[in-house]
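Re: that chain you flagged

S.,

Sorry for the slow reply, it's been a week of failed gels. I finally had a moment to sit down with the sequence you sent. For the record, here it is as I used it:
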Amino acid sequence: MQKTRAKLPVFLIIITAVAACFLHFFRIYTEQSKNGFAFFIDFPSYIIYILIFLGFIFAFFYAVFKKDSACVFDVQEGKKSILLSSALLSLSFFYDFIHQGYNCYSYASSAYYIDYTYVIPMGISGILALISSFYFLTLALTQRNENYDFKNFTFLHFAPVAWAFTKLVVIMLQIVDVKINIEVCCEFILLCVTLCFLFSMICAVDKKEKGATRIFVFSAVLLAFMSCIVALPRIALIIMGVSSIFGEVTFSSVTYIMLGIFSLTLLCDINKRSNLGQ
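Prediction finished late last night. Pasting the structure tokens below so you have them in one place:
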């Protein structure tokens, strides 16, 4: 009965995510290319916010229905799925470091007036992305070698948190209209969810044998949900060459989508070990 009740919110979350991605993609495409479907020209922005709200509700019910979860990290038995997702996440953070560094340099060398309140946080974000890359590399190595435990790197646990917080600060420095700047608002929500997930993950490191909390499950599902809504339309539009709406320095879609995949990988591993009674 518990499994059946937990499956329904997952099904609804998937439907909501697909609908939100579809609407978000065509809204931006129509605004930028001027040759999309006429329906999306005057598309009401609140529909996307309603879908995000529904995603939060479904994730909440999923977390409530999930009980007796296994611990978040099982270092004793390395999982190939976690090894692969954390290694790819490490590479995406390294890409983010290179990308942020290049674009900060490009902006500083070409601008007549340098806005240091914008460049400095982005530069710090790039450095934190490099440290985060090393952190998730240690997590991948832990899954490969039992004598190598990422839990011992206490300082590194906070590197991804600081990275997300720095990017959040950059958005907060902007003047945003929730009706017009839907893209920025969605990224703001994503970063808030990312902070919640990373904090709950840090707490899970210290709890060792205790099961995953509902907050961790809730934030993990939401992170995957929001990363799809923010990152997938961006990546598709950039591939199509319709990307003028995105700031060069703030582009981190690859990292966002890999964070979502990583959270789902952890959640799937927890569910598998919970079903096996571990």
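What I noticed first: The chain has a mean pLDDT of 81.

Talk soon,
D.
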